[in-house]
């Protein structure tokens, strides 16, 4: 399914009137016209860092990511509807946030590994090798929005894991 655009430009005011879209847009991090996926990923990195920083362990972060994935299917679906049935609009970044929670719950801790994990995720999310591309183009609705990013997160975790074994 081809990505589409809404008939209007989402604004902060629109997000404040659409609470589910506020979450779908990553608490506003998906609003920038340039690189909303990167901004959403940075929001996910920030949230993961805050949660781990207050003592939430990696296992709990992973379990939170699982719950956020399941809930995110509905969030992303409702956000698509609020945009006028727009498919996988770039400003919907809840999927990037959840993917970052997965990545940072599964990779070694430390600044170096987080930068590599972030970069690897962004690479796979942008380039979309198979089956990411298939999930992005063939799976509709909220599940489609969420699924391609989780697969990209798995690829990123694998890359970091391999690098961690080497170094």
UniProtKB/TrEMBL annotation:
Q: What GO MF terms are annotated?
A: metal ion binding; phosphatidylglycerophosphatase activity
Give its E.C. classification number: 3.1.3.27
Location in or out of the cell: Cell inner membrane
Checking Pfam families in the record gives: PgpA
Q: Which InterPro entries match?
A: PgpA, PgpA-like_sf, YutG/PgpA
Indicate where this protein is primarily found: membrane
Q: Where are the transmembrane segments?
A: 48-76, 97-121, 141-166
Per UniProt, the keywords (alphabetical) are:
Cell inner membrane, Cell membrane, Hydrolase, Lipid degradation, Lipid metabolism, Magnesium, Membrane, Metal-binding, Phospholipid degradation, Phospholipid metabolism, Transmembrane, Transmembrane helix
What catalytic reaction does the record list? a 1,2-diacyl-sn-glycero-3-phospho-(1'-sn-glycero-3'-phosphate) + H2O = a 1,2-diacyl-sn-glycero-3-phospho-(1'-sn-glycerol) + phosphate
A single GO cellular-component term from the record reads:
plasma membrane
Residue span(s) of domain YutG/PgpA: 24-163
Tell me the membrane topology, using the record's own terms: Multi-pass membrane protein
Pathway(s) it belongs to: Phospholipid metabolism; phosphatidylglycerol biosynthesis; phosphatidylglycerol from CDP-diacylglycerol: step 2/2
For biological process, the GO terms are:
phosphatidylglycerol biosynthetic process; phospholipid catabolic process
The cofactor required is:
Mg(2+)
Superkingdom, according to UniProt? Answer: Bacteria
> What is its biological role?
Lipid phosphatase which dephosphorylates phosphatidylglycerophosphate (PGP) to phosphatidylglycerol (PG).
Q: What is this protein called?
A: Phosphatidylglycerophosphatase A
To which species is this protein native? Answer: Simonsiella muelleri ATCC 29453
């Amino acid at each position: 399914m081809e990505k589409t655009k809404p008939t209007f430009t989402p604004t902060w005011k629109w997000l404040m009137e659409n609470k589910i879209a506020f979450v779908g847009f990553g608490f506003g991090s998906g609003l920038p016209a340039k690189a909303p996926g990167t901004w959403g990923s940075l929001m996910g990195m920030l949230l993961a860092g805050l949660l781990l920083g207050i003592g939430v362990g990696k296992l709990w972060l992973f379990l939170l990511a699982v719950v956020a994935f399941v809930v995110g299917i509905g969030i992303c679906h409702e956000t698509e509807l609020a945009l006028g049935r727009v498919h996988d609009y770039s400003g919907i970044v809840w999927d990037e946030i959840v993917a970052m929670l997965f990545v940072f719950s599964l990779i070694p801790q430390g600044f170096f590994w987080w930068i590599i994990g972030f970069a690897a995720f962004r690479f796979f999310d942008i380039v979309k090798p198979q089956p990411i591309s298939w999930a992005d183009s063939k799976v509709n609705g909220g599940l489609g929005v969420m699924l391609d990013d989780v697969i990209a997160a798995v690829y990123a975790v694998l890359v970091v894991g391999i690098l961690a074994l080497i170094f």
